[in-house]
Amino acid sequence: MTDFSSARFVVTGTASGIGASVAEKLLAAGAQVHSLDRNTPSAAVTTHTEVDLANPRSIDAALEHLEGSFTGLINVAGIPGTAPAEAVVAVNALAVRHLTELLVGRIERGGSVVVVSSTAGYNWPARLEQIRELLATKTFEEGAAWFKEHPQEGNAYNFSKEVATVYAMYMAVPLLATGIRINAVTPGPVETPILADFEETMGKDTLDGVKGLLGRHAQPGDIADAVLFLASPQSRWINGHALVADGGLTGGVLSGVVPAPEI
User: Fold this and answer.
1) Which domain holds residue 130?
2) What distance in Å separates the CA atoms of residue 62 and residue 56, rounded to the nearest whole number?
3) DSSP character for 137?
4) Which of 79, 143, 154, 249 has a CA positioned 20 to 30 A from the CA of residue 119?
């Protein structure tokens, strides 16, 4: 395990699932964890600040409670496609951008930003033009207005994760001058409290098929370990990368071994 003694991380989504596992693993490795979540974190974090990630003013206010500089930011919090489309894009994409760009000036050189995205965003190349238009907006509110004026086909969750994945790639070069890296982790299905929501929006038969192919769904710790790697100095030359953590499903799809699931 990487020694994170003296490291200070801001982590969103610590109340459950992947975020809770990330917090627990960072704490066990000696780091301070400053939690941002609308619910109480399950781990004994260093500090916790309640935040509504769908509201940029709430994000602004939450950051006023955080003192000093940080080793990194880990954006884990997200909501499923069962929520209203505008809320999904706000939390899963616009909040990631807003929080990252507010905090980046307080992340130390050599630090890292990690975005937990999803393999549901695998089709980002087909919508890159639209994603770049959204990312060209200057504020959270402008981004929300763009999405309202340009509703996308299919599940808003998929689009939100396409944006999150591209954002991590898009910002790698602009952040070079700060000495900060940014990467994404793209999990497949994970055994978390919102898995039932994904079964509803993506199809239980589809997700059961993925589970049957791979033998199991991921556990939160499987993804948290990938997150900690990207947050650590061991990944110092990895930047602007979307690390797939799905047990081999994407490799099978891209190589034509298995058909792409319809999600």
Assistant:
1) 8-248
2) 10
3) S
4) 143
